[in-house]
Fold:
Amino acid sequence: MLLQHTAKRECKLLLILRQEMQLSSGLVKRLKFQNALLVNGAPVHTDFPVRPGDAITVRLEDAAPDYPAEGLPLDILYEDAAILAVDKPAGLIIHPTTARITGTLANRVIAHFQKQGQPCAFHPVTRLDRDTFGVVLLAKDGHCHARLCDAMQRGLIHKTYRALVFGAPADDYGVIDAPIVRPDPMRMLRAIGAGGKPAQTRYTVLARRPGCALLQLQPLTGRTHQLRLHCLHAGFPILGDPQYYTEASLADSRRRGLSTQLLCAASLTFPHPLTGQEMTLSTHLDRILADD
Structure:
């Protein structure tokens, strides 16, 4: 991908890159060692003196991934030159690890980029647990990824989830406010505990059914396993959850024949990294909750 800009003032190139083109400092540092910064078609360094009318070009190129592409199904919700949003099914992990370099969402996305002739790397902006399904947003280059991550830090990206839970809240809406700790640094499991990181989740009851309820969940903070843990803590664990459950919810999940937790990333609202236009993307997979 190429970013292009025409200088309107006399200054060092670095100021144009950071202030007007809004490239992150980390990205600029990486690009200056790749001959990816050009003024009037010639490679330059960040201290190059730019004059009004100069044509500035930034080449955004990613190194080839060190894991294979896999041409498996990919449910695309939206795609343009800057971003890709997909519906992730349950059971699919997001990114390869040192122990596993195949069978992930990243392998499928890289295969899609290669098929389209797009030299893009895998830049996830949002992530889901392996068994959580729904919307995942990805950037196609480091610049768009940095812009979206900055938007998330500033609270401009809003996530809405839906979950089928065992039992039901007494009230139709409320906020669960409980700090989250990691008792064992060698394990991923979290717990509610004093001294943990602050965590808040807003919930709304969408439907009450015999023995269960359909909830809308909005994380006001972004802690690992927050929604699953908060629902358990509040007395209505998510059905099918293999880690955060009560004996009663586990028995009911088994009775229903559930093989995965019924938690869905239903929609995502965010500013487009290049245009700033607000976008909302929604899953097609929430029908799994309606059909249960």
Helices lie at 13-20, 25-31, 105-115, 142-153, 226-234, 247-256, 287-291. Residues 2-59 form a domain with the Structural Genomics Hypothetical 15.5 Kd Protein In mrcA-pckA Intergenic Region; Chain A fold (CATH 3.10.290).
